[in-house]
Amino acid sequence: MNSIVIAPFSNSDIRDWPVPSFIELIGLLLARWPGPGIIRVIGTAAQSIRACDIVREFSATRVWNDCGRLTWSEVLREIRCAACVIGNNSGIAHLGGYFGTPTVCIFSASHQRLEWWPHGISVITLSETIGCSPCHFNHSAKCPYNKVCLRRIEPSVVADVVLKLITDRETLTDAGTRGRAVQ
Fold it and tell me: Which domains does the chain have, with CATH numbers?
């Protein structure tokens, strides 16, 4: 069974879904995803310590911290072969869409969703549009609302979408959708 690839960090913290949300999501996926599937958390070597906070409470046989451990070609292979890619508005989510891999993009309201969301036949973009969006901030410290646009996206909703994408992959491919936004 292919792994689920999670890329919890972008190059701008305003776009990063909170770490506790990723932890809850992984717990839900492990409870509901059949079989011995692996969840691989990917990122740079500099993100490895933050990724430890995400993977710490899970069995190392099911959840791996691969931040900084994979070459770029290995990252690309994992994205191409994944059962699903989960990421923020980042390059990894865009690559998942490009490769046609089922991809869930958790998209902050800092940028214009219709301009910047990842495209692809099996991409679902989850976002919350609020009154201050798009704010165009580049750092969380500038957000007066503590990234409420991301905190409103529930891990249970993300888990439902991920599992549906995995099980309905053939249906989505047949439907020929280019990408959808869910609010």
Answer: 4-182 (3.40.50.2000)
